[in-house]
Design brief:
The protein has 103 residues and is mostly beta strands. The protein is built from two helices and seven strands; from the N terminus they run βββββαββα. It has one domain.
């Protein structure tokens, strides 16, 4: 478990990985009780390339992009896609985060 601290979350979490219908990776943060704290990724019209994710960084996820970068879990590719009234960021998963997801 790692300590996740964003605007709306301040607790120890673990991460679970799944897949969206388009084959791109879906990542959720879970509390110590197994409850979903947040869904970190989002599925958009353009599937994320292998080893990358689209990060949802608005509303309840405010601050997650910065936290992921500061903790060495992702590298921001500076590719941003508008989705409705918000933007999603394409990020490369680091080896550190990949190892954490595979635990």
């Amino acid at each position: 478990m790692v300590h996740l601290k964003t605007r709306y979350v301040d607790e120890k979490v673990s991460f679970v990985c799944g897949w969206y219908h388009d084959g791109s990776m879906a990542i959720r943060a879970l509390s110590g009780y197994g409850e979903v704290v947040m869904t970190i990724t989002v599925c958009v019209d353009e599937p994320a390339p292998e080893g990358h994710i689209w990060v949802k960084s608005w509303s309840e996820n405010e601050g997650i992009l910065e936290w992921l970068i500061e903790n060495g879990f992702v590298i921001d590719s500076d590719i941003i896609r508008p989705v409705n009234f918000v933007n999603v960021h394409l990020c490369e998963l680091t080896e550190k985060f990949t190892k954490l997801l595979l635990r």
